[in-house]
Amino acid sequence: MSALSSTDPRIAELVDAERRRQDEKLRMIPSENYVSPAVLEATGSVLTNKYSEGYPGRRYYEGQQFVDPVETLAKERAEALFGVEHANVQPYSGSPANLAAYLAFLSPGDTVLGMALPMGGHLTHGNAVSATGKWFRAVHYGVRRDTGRLDLDEVRDLARAERPRMIICGGTAIPRTIDFPAFAEIAREVGAVLLADIAHIAGLVAGGAHPSPVGYADVVSTTTHKTLRGPRGAMLMTTAEHAKAIDKAVFPGLQGGPHNHTTAAIAVALHEAAQPDFAAYARQVVTNAQALAAALTARGYDLVSGGTDNHLLLVDLTGKGVTGKVAAKALDAAGIELNFNTVPYDPRRPFDPSGIRLGTPAITTRGLTAEHMPAVAEWLDRTVTAAAAGDESGLAATAAEIRAFLADFPVHTPAT
Protein backbone atom coordinates (compact mmCIF):
# COMPACT_ATOMS: atom_id res chain seq x y z
CA MET A 1 0.00 0.00 0.00
CA SER A 2 2.92 2.34 -0.70
CA ALA A 3 0.82 4.54 -3.01
CA LEU A 4 -1.81 5.06 -0.32
CA SER A 5 0.82 5.76 2.32
CA SER A 6 2.39 8.38 0.06
CA THR A 7 -0.86 10.02 -1.09
CA ASP A 8 -2.91 9.89 2.11
CA PRO A 9 -0.85 8.77 5.10
CA ARG A 10 -3.72 9.33 7.55
CA ILE A 11 -6.03 6.90 5.74
CA ALA A 12 -3.09 4.49 5.35
CA GLU A 13 -2.54 4.63 9.11
CA LEU A 14 -6.18 3.86 9.77
CA VAL A 15 -6.22 0.96 7.31
CA ASP A 16 -3.10 -0.51 8.88
CA ALA A 17 -4.54 -0.03 12.35
CA GLU A 18 -7.65 -1.93 11.28
CA ARG A 19 -5.47 -4.72 9.85
CA ARG A 20 -3.68 -5.02 13.19
CA ARG A 21 -6.99 -4.98 15.06
CA GLN A 22 -8.30 -7.84 12.93
CA ASP A 23 -5.06 -9.74 13.54
CA GLU A 24 -5.09 -9.33 17.30
CA LYS A 25 -8.72 -9.95 18.26
CA LEU A 26 -11.08 -12.89 18.38
CA ARG A 27 -13.51 -11.63 15.76
CA MET A 28 -16.82 -13.26 16.63
CA ILE A 29 -19.47 -11.09 14.98
CA PRO A 30 -21.35 -13.79 13.00
CA SER A 31 -21.62 -11.62 9.88
CA GLU A 32 -17.87 -10.96 9.66
CA ASN A 33 -15.06 -13.03 8.19
CA TYR A 34 -11.66 -12.85 6.52
CA VAL A 35 -11.43 -12.89 2.74
CA SER A 36 -8.55 -14.48 0.86
CA PRO A 37 -5.71 -12.44 -0.69
CA ALA A 38 -7.20 -13.29 -4.10
CA VAL A 39 -10.57 -11.79 -3.15
CA LEU A 40 -8.81 -8.70 -1.80
CA GLU A 41 -6.83 -8.30 -5.02
CA ALA A 42 -9.94 -8.57 -7.17
CA THR A 43 -11.75 -6.03 -4.98
CA GLY A 44 -8.90 -3.55 -5.42
CA SER A 45 -8.48 -4.11 -9.15
CA VAL A 46 -8.78 -1.72 -12.12
CA LEU A 47 -12.29 -3.04 -12.70
CA THR A 48 -13.40 -0.29 -10.34
CA ASN A 49 -12.65 2.15 -13.20
CA LYS A 50 -15.29 0.74 -15.55
CA TYR A 51 -18.97 1.67 -15.85
CA SER A 52 -21.27 -1.13 -17.06
CA GLU A 53 -24.98 -0.38 -16.86
CA GLY A 54 -27.01 -3.32 -18.14
CA TYR A 55 -26.16 -7.00 -18.38
CA PRO A 56 -23.55 -8.98 -20.34
CA GLY A 57 -24.19 -8.52 -24.06
CA ARG A 58 -26.73 -5.75 -23.34
CA ARG A 59 -24.78 -2.78 -21.97
CA TYR A 60 -25.33 0.94 -22.35
CA TYR A 61 -21.60 1.70 -22.54
CA GLU A 62 -18.87 0.41 -24.84
CA GLY A 63 -15.64 -1.23 -23.71
CA GLN A 64 -17.21 -4.27 -22.02
CA GLN A 65 -15.00 -6.91 -23.68
CA PHE A 66 -13.53 -8.03 -20.37
CA VAL A 67 -16.22 -6.95 -17.91
CA ASP A 68 -18.88 -9.12 -19.58
CA PRO A 69 -16.86 -12.35 -19.11
CA VAL A 70 -16.20 -11.42 -15.46
CA GLU A 71 -19.90 -11.04 -14.69
CA THR A 72 -20.78 -14.13 -16.72
CA LEU A 73 -18.25 -16.17 -14.74
CA ALA A 74 -19.67 -14.93 -11.43
CA LYS A 75 -23.21 -15.69 -12.55
CA GLU A 76 -22.36 -19.19 -13.82
CA ARG A 77 -20.36 -20.03 -10.72
CA ALA A 78 -23.25 -18.98 -8.46
CA GLU A 79 -25.68 -21.09 -10.48
CA ALA A 80 -23.39 -24.12 -10.31
CA LEU A 81 -22.50 -23.77 -6.62
CA PHE A 82 -26.08 -23.34 -5.40
CA GLY A 83 -27.79 -25.42 -8.08
CA VAL A 84 -30.08 -22.63 -9.31
CA GLU A 85 -31.38 -21.84 -12.76
CA HIS A 86 -30.61 -18.12 -12.62
CA ALA A 87 -28.40 -15.84 -10.55
CA ASN A 88 -28.08 -12.07 -10.53
CA VAL A 89 -24.75 -10.95 -9.03
CA GLN A 90 -25.24 -7.18 -9.33
CA PRO A 91 -27.00 -6.15 -6.07
CA TYR A 92 -24.81 -3.79 -4.07
CA SER A 93 -25.64 -5.40 -0.71
CA GLY A 94 -28.21 -7.52 1.07
CA SER A 95 -30.76 -4.78 1.73
CA PRO A 96 -31.00 -3.67 -1.94
CA ALA A 97 -31.18 -7.33 -2.94
CA ASN A 98 -34.18 -7.87 -0.69
CA LEU A 99 -35.79 -4.66 -1.92
CA ALA A 100 -35.33 -5.87 -5.51
CA ALA A 101 -37.24 -9.04 -4.61
CA TYR A 102 -40.10 -6.89 -3.31
CA LEU A 103 -40.02 -4.84 -6.51
CA ALA A 104 -40.07 -7.96 -8.67
CA PHE A 105 -43.12 -9.55 -7.06
CA LEU A 106 -45.11 -6.94 -5.11
CA SER A 107 -46.94 -3.67 -5.41
CA PRO A 108 -46.91 -0.97 -2.70
CA GLY A 109 -49.34 -1.86 0.05
CA ASP A 110 -49.15 -5.61 -0.48
CA THR A 111 -48.94 -7.76 2.63
CA VAL A 112 -45.60 -9.33 3.58
CA LEU A 113 -45.11 -11.93 6.31
CA GLY A 114 -41.61 -11.99 7.80
CA MET A 115 -39.79 -12.64 11.03
CA ALA A 116 -39.93 -9.79 13.53
CA LEU A 117 -36.62 -8.02 14.03
CA PRO A 118 -36.54 -8.54 17.84
CA MET A 119 -37.11 -12.26 17.24
CA GLY A 120 -34.16 -12.63 14.86
CA GLY A 121 -35.40 -11.19 11.57
CA HIS A 122 -33.93 -8.36 9.50
CA LEU A 123 -34.84 -4.71 9.01
CA THR A 124 -35.79 -5.42 5.38
CA HIS A 125 -38.32 -8.06 6.41
CA GLY A 126 -40.92 -5.35 6.96
CA ASN A 127 -39.61 -3.51 10.00
CA ALA A 128 -41.39 -0.21 10.57
CA VAL A 129 -38.24 1.91 10.22
CA SER A 130 -37.33 0.29 6.89
CA ALA A 131 -38.68 1.21 3.47
CA THR A 132 -40.09 -2.32 3.39
CA GLY A 133 -42.23 -1.52 6.43
CA LYS A 134 -43.26 1.88 5.12
CA TRP A 135 -44.17 0.81 1.58
CA PHE A 136 -45.73 -2.58 2.35
CA ARG A 137 -48.14 -3.92 4.93
CA ALA A 138 -45.94 -6.01 7.19
CA VAL A 139 -47.08 -8.84 9.46
CA HIS A 140 -44.55 -10.60 11.65
CA TYR A 141 -44.05 -13.99 13.24
CA GLY A 142 -41.71 -14.80 16.13
CA VAL A 143 -40.45 -17.63 18.28
CA ARG A 144 -41.96 -19.47 21.23
CA ARG A 145 -41.33 -18.02 24.68
CA ASP A 146 -40.67 -21.44 26.18
CA THR A 147 -38.23 -22.79 23.57
CA GLY A 148 -36.88 -19.80 21.67
CA ARG A 149 -37.63 -21.71 18.47
CA LEU A 150 -39.77 -20.77 15.50
CA ASP A 151 -43.40 -21.78 15.77
CA LEU A 152 -44.46 -22.93 12.30
CA ASP A 153 -48.06 -23.31 13.47
CA GLU A 154 -48.07 -19.56 14.17
CA VAL A 155 -46.60 -18.88 10.74
CA ARG A 156 -49.31 -20.99 9.10
CA ASP A 157 -52.09 -19.37 11.13
CA LEU A 158 -50.84 -15.87 10.29
CA ALA A 159 -50.50 -16.77 6.61
CA ARG A 160 -54.07 -18.10 6.48
CA ALA A 161 -55.44 -15.07 8.29
CA GLU A 162 -53.44 -12.34 6.52
CA ARG A 163 -53.03 -13.88 3.02
CA PRO A 164 -49.60 -12.30 2.38
CA ARG A 165 -48.33 -11.82 -1.14
CA MET A 166 -44.84 -12.73 0.06
CA ILE A 167 -43.48 -14.83 2.94
CA ILE A 168 -39.87 -14.37 4.06
CA CYS A 169 -37.84 -16.95 5.93
CA GLY A 170 -34.38 -16.35 7.32
CA GLY A 171 -32.88 -13.60 9.43
CA THR A 172 -29.90 -12.26 11.34
CA ALA A 173 -30.09 -13.98 14.72
CA ILE A 174 -31.53 -17.44 14.11
CA PRO A 175 -29.38 -20.15 15.71
CA ARG A 176 -31.46 -23.06 14.42
CA THR A 177 -31.96 -24.81 11.07
CA ILE A 178 -34.55 -23.13 8.85
CA ASP A 179 -37.22 -25.56 7.64
CA PHE A 180 -37.48 -24.48 4.01
CA PRO A 181 -39.88 -27.29 2.97
CA ALA A 182 -42.36 -26.29 5.70
CA PHE A 183 -42.23 -22.63 4.66
CA ALA A 184 -42.73 -23.64 1.03
CA GLU A 185 -45.81 -25.68 1.95
CA ILE A 186 -47.32 -22.70 3.79
CA ALA A 187 -46.52 -20.33 0.92
CA ARG A 188 -48.13 -22.66 -1.62
CA GLU A 189 -51.25 -23.03 0.52
CA VAL A 190 -51.88 -19.26 0.59
CA GLY A 191 -50.52 -18.48 -2.87
CA ALA A 192 -47.56 -16.43 -1.60
CA VAL A 193 -44.13 -15.94 -3.09
CA LEU A 194 -41.45 -17.44 -0.80
CA LEU A 195 -38.26 -15.43 -0.32
CA ALA A 196 -35.45 -17.23 1.49
CA ASP A 197 -32.94 -14.78 2.94
CA ILE A 198 -29.81 -16.87 3.50
CA ALA A 199 -27.37 -13.99 3.93
CA HIS A 200 -25.99 -15.47 7.15
CA ILE A 201 -25.88 -19.12 6.17
CA ALA A 202 -25.00 -18.98 2.45
CA GLY A 203 -21.54 -20.41 3.05
CA LEU A 204 -22.99 -23.20 5.16
CA VAL A 205 -25.50 -23.98 2.40
CA ALA A 206 -22.76 -23.94 -0.24
CA GLY A 207 -20.61 -26.21 1.91
CA GLY A 208 -23.40 -28.66 2.68
CA ALA A 209 -23.56 -27.77 6.38
CA HIS A 210 -27.13 -26.40 6.22
CA PRO A 211 -30.10 -27.50 4.07
CA SER A 212 -30.61 -25.50 0.89
CA PRO A 213 -33.73 -23.47 0.06
CA VAL A 214 -33.28 -24.21 -3.64
CA GLY A 215 -36.29 -26.08 -4.96
CA TYR A 216 -38.49 -24.64 -2.22
CA ALA A 217 -38.13 -20.85 -2.39
CA ASP A 218 -39.21 -18.82 -5.40
CA VAL A 219 -36.29 -16.48 -4.87
CA VAL A 220 -33.18 -16.70 -2.69
CA SER A 221 -31.31 -13.61 -1.55
CA THR A 222 -27.89 -13.59 0.03
CA THR A 223 -24.96 -11.41 0.79
CA THR A 224 -21.61 -12.61 -0.52
CA HIS A 225 -19.55 -12.00 2.61
CA LYS A 226 -20.31 -13.54 6.02
CA THR A 227 -19.97 -17.36 5.85
CA LEU A 228 -19.41 -17.25 2.07
CA ARG A 229 -16.10 -15.37 2.59
CA GLY A 230 -16.49 -13.01 -0.34
CA PRO A 231 -16.56 -9.22 -0.72
CA ARG A 232 -19.32 -6.98 0.56
CA GLY A 233 -21.98 -7.61 -2.09
CA ALA A 234 -25.11 -9.65 -2.72
CA MET A 235 -26.87 -12.01 -5.11
CA LEU A 236 -30.42 -12.97 -6.02
CA MET A 237 -31.06 -16.51 -7.22
CA THR A 238 -34.25 -17.84 -8.72
CA THR A 239 -35.88 -20.10 -11.28
CA ALA A 240 -35.85 -19.40 -15.02
CA GLU A 241 -39.52 -18.44 -14.67
CA HIS A 242 -38.70 -15.45 -12.48
CA ALA A 243 -35.33 -14.51 -14.00
CA LYS A 244 -36.61 -11.62 -16.09
CA ALA A 245 -38.57 -10.06 -13.22
CA ILE A 246 -35.57 -10.25 -10.89
CA ASP A 247 -33.16 -8.80 -13.45
CA LYS A 248 -35.51 -5.90 -14.25
CA ALA A 249 -35.96 -5.19 -10.56
CA VAL A 250 -32.20 -4.92 -9.98
CA PHE A 251 -31.53 -2.92 -13.16
CA PRO A 252 -33.09 -0.58 -14.06
CA GLY A 253 -35.47 -0.93 -11.11
CA LEU A 254 -33.11 -0.01 -8.29
CA GLN A 255 -29.54 0.37 -9.48
CA GLY A 256 -27.32 1.85 -12.15
CA GLY A 257 -24.02 0.29 -13.09
CA PRO A 258 -22.77 -2.70 -11.09
CA HIS A 259 -19.54 -2.52 -9.10
CA ASN A 260 -17.36 -4.57 -11.43
CA HIS A 261 -14.48 -4.97 -8.96
CA THR A 262 -16.94 -6.47 -6.48
CA THR A 263 -18.40 -8.73 -9.16
CA ALA A 264 -14.90 -10.06 -9.89
CA ALA A 265 -14.27 -10.67 -6.19
CA ILE A 266 -17.61 -12.48 -5.94
CA ALA A 267 -16.52 -14.71 -8.81
CA VAL A 268 -13.27 -15.50 -6.99
CA ALA A 269 -15.09 -16.28 -3.72
CA LEU A 270 -17.54 -18.57 -5.51
CA HIS A 271 -14.62 -20.38 -7.14
CA GLU A 272 -13.04 -20.84 -3.70
CA ALA A 273 -16.34 -22.04 -2.22
CA ALA A 274 -16.56 -24.74 -4.91
CA GLN A 275 -13.33 -26.35 -3.69
CA PRO A 276 -13.45 -29.43 -1.41
CA ASP A 277 -11.74 -27.66 1.49
CA PHE A 278 -14.58 -25.14 1.70
CA ALA A 279 -17.03 -27.90 2.63
CA ALA A 280 -14.68 -28.89 5.43
CA TYR A 281 -14.57 -25.25 6.53
CA ALA A 282 -18.38 -25.00 6.60
CA ARG A 283 -18.67 -28.13 8.73
CA GLN A 284 -15.98 -26.86 11.10
CA VAL A 285 -17.84 -23.57 11.56
CA VAL A 286 -20.85 -25.49 12.87
CA THR A 287 -18.72 -27.86 14.95
CA ASN A 288 -16.97 -24.93 16.57
CA ALA A 289 -20.23 -23.10 17.27
CA GLN A 290 -21.72 -26.17 18.93
CA ALA A 291 -18.57 -26.75 20.98
CA LEU A 292 -18.64 -23.13 22.13
CA ALA A 293 -22.34 -23.43 22.97
CA ALA A 294 -21.63 -26.47 25.12
CA ALA A 295 -18.76 -24.71 26.90
CA LEU A 296 -20.86 -21.62 27.64
CA THR A 297 -23.83 -23.69 28.78
CA ALA A 298 -21.55 -25.51 31.19
CA ARG A 299 -20.63 -22.11 32.63
CA GLY A 300 -24.28 -21.25 33.24
CA TYR A 301 -25.04 -19.11 30.19
CA ASP A 302 -28.59 -18.92 28.86
CA LEU A 303 -28.48 -19.58 25.11
CA VAL A 304 -31.61 -18.68 23.16
CA SER A 305 -33.16 -21.95 21.91
CA GLY A 306 -30.68 -23.86 24.08
CA GLY A 307 -27.86 -23.98 21.55
CA THR A 308 -27.15 -23.73 17.85
CA ASP A 309 -27.37 -25.68 14.60
CA ASN A 310 -25.31 -23.23 12.58
CA HIS A 311 -22.64 -20.54 12.97
CA LEU A 312 -24.14 -18.24 15.60
CA LEU A 313 -25.13 -18.12 19.24
CA LEU A 314 -27.59 -15.70 20.83
CA VAL A 315 -26.98 -15.34 24.56
CA ASP A 316 -29.34 -13.79 27.13
CA LEU A 317 -27.18 -12.21 29.86
CA THR A 318 -30.05 -11.36 32.20
CA GLY A 319 -29.00 -14.12 34.60
CA LYS A 320 -25.42 -12.85 34.61
CA GLY A 321 -26.42 -9.45 35.98
CA VAL A 322 -25.10 -7.41 33.06
CA THR A 323 -26.59 -5.90 29.93
CA GLY A 324 -25.54 -6.89 26.45
CA LYS A 325 -24.13 -3.46 25.67
CA VAL A 326 -21.97 -3.28 28.80
CA ALA A 327 -20.72 -6.82 28.19
CA ALA A 328 -19.96 -6.17 24.52
CA LYS A 329 -17.93 -3.05 25.33
CA ALA A 330 -15.92 -4.92 27.96
CA LEU A 331 -15.36 -7.88 25.64
CA ASP A 332 -14.08 -5.58 22.90
CA ALA A 333 -11.57 -4.11 25.34
CA ALA A 334 -10.57 -7.66 26.30
CA GLY A 335 -9.88 -8.67 22.70
CA ILE A 336 -13.19 -10.32 21.81
CA GLU A 337 -15.29 -8.64 19.13
CA LEU A 338 -19.02 -9.39 19.07
CA ASN A 339 -22.22 -7.35 19.21
CA PHE A 340 -24.92 -6.59 21.75
CA ASN A 341 -28.26 -7.90 20.52
CA THR A 342 -31.92 -8.03 21.40
CA VAL A 343 -33.16 -11.42 22.55
CA PRO A 344 -36.74 -12.65 21.97
CA TYR A 345 -39.26 -10.85 24.22
CA ASP A 346 -36.49 -8.58 25.48
CA PRO A 347 -37.81 -6.04 28.01
CA ARG A 348 -34.87 -3.72 27.32
CA ARG A 349 -34.41 -1.17 24.52
CA PRO A 350 -32.76 -2.28 21.24
CA PHE A 351 -29.73 -0.02 21.75
CA ASP A 352 -29.24 -1.35 25.27
CA PRO A 353 -30.54 -4.92 25.09
CA SER A 354 -30.19 -8.00 27.25
CA GLY A 355 -28.17 -10.17 24.91
CA ILE A 356 -25.05 -10.65 22.87
CA ARG A 357 -24.68 -12.31 19.47
CA LEU A 358 -21.53 -14.16 18.53
CA GLY A 359 -20.38 -16.70 15.98
CA THR A 360 -17.52 -18.77 14.63
CA PRO A 361 -17.03 -18.01 10.88
CA ALA A 362 -13.98 -15.74 11.25
CA ILE A 363 -12.19 -17.67 13.98
CA THR A 364 -12.71 -20.87 12.00
CA THR A 365 -11.13 -19.22 8.96
CA ARG A 366 -8.09 -18.54 11.18
CA GLY A 367 -7.83 -22.23 12.01
CA LEU A 368 -9.41 -22.53 15.45
CA THR A 369 -11.12 -25.85 16.12
CA ALA A 370 -13.45 -27.32 18.71
CA GLU A 371 -10.55 -27.97 21.09
CA HIS A 372 -10.02 -24.21 21.39
CA MET A 373 -13.63 -23.36 22.25
CA PRO A 374 -13.36 -24.03 26.02
CA ALA A 375 -10.56 -21.43 26.16
CA VAL A 376 -12.69 -18.97 24.21
CA ALA A 377 -15.57 -19.63 26.61
CA GLU A 378 -13.27 -19.02 29.57
CA TRP A 379 -12.12 -15.65 28.18
CA LEU A 380 -15.74 -14.71 27.50
CA ASP A 381 -16.89 -15.74 30.96
CA ARG A 382 -13.99 -14.03 32.68
CA THR A 383 -14.79 -10.76 30.93
CA VAL A 384 -18.57 -10.91 31.37
CA THR A 385 -18.07 -11.59 35.08
CA ALA A 386 -15.75 -8.60 35.31
CA ALA A 387 -18.23 -6.42 33.42
CA ALA A 388 -21.03 -7.43 35.79
CA ALA A 389 -18.82 -6.40 38.73
CA GLY A 390 -17.79 -3.14 37.04
CA ASP A 391 -14.16 -4.28 37.20
CA GLU A 392 -12.04 -3.29 34.20
CA SER A 393 -8.67 -4.02 35.81
CA GLY A 394 -8.08 -7.32 34.05
CA LEU A 395 -9.35 -6.52 30.55
CA ALA A 396 -5.99 -5.46 29.15
CA ALA A 397 -4.36 -8.62 30.49
CA THR A 398 -7.02 -10.77 28.80
CA ALA A 399 -6.48 -8.90 25.55
CA ALA A 400 -2.74 -9.56 25.76
CA GLU A 401 -3.40 -13.24 26.43
CA ILE A 402 -5.65 -13.46 23.38
CA ARG A 403 -3.09 -11.60 21.23
CA ALA A 404 -0.41 -14.10 22.19
CA PHE A 405 -2.75 -17.00 21.48
CA LEU A 406 -3.73 -15.69 18.04
CA ALA A 407 -0.09 -15.30 17.00
CA ASP A 408 -0.22 -19.04 16.21
CA PHE A 409 -3.19 -18.44 13.87
CA PRO A 410 -2.01 -15.81 11.38
CA VAL A 411 -4.39 -14.01 9.05
CA HIS A 412 -3.24 -14.43 5.46
CA THR A 413 -3.93 -10.88 4.32
CA PRO A 414 -1.38 -8.43 2.91
CA ALA A 415 0.17 -5.96 5.33
CA THR A 416 0.49 -2.29 4.48
UniProtKB/TrEMBL annotation:
One biological process term in Gene Ontology:
glycine biosynthetic process from serine
Q: This protein's superkingdom?
A: Bacteria
What are the record keywords, sorted?
Amino-acid biosynthesis, Cytoplasm, One-carbon metabolism, Pyridoxal phosphate, Transferase
GO MF annotations in UniProt: glycine hydroxymethyltransferase activity; protein homodimerization activity; pyridoxal phosphate binding
A Pfam match is SHMT
Localization, UniProt: Cytoplasm
Q: Which residues form the Serine hydroxymethyltransferase-like domain?
A: 4-379
Q: Does the keyword Cytoplasm apply?
A: yes
Site note Plays an important role in substrate specificity applies to 225
Q: Does the keyword Ribonucleoprotein apply?
A: no
Cofactors named for this entry: pyridoxal 5'-phosphate
The record ties this protein, via PROSITE patterns, to: SHMT (PS00096)
Q: What is its EC number?
A: 2.1.2.1
Which pathway features in its UniProt record?
Amino-acid biosynthesis; glycine biosynthesis; glycine from L-serine: step 1/1; One-carbon metabolism; tetrahydrofolate interconversion
Name listed for the protein in its UniProt record: Serine hydroxymethyltransferase
What gene codes for this chain? Answer: glyA_1
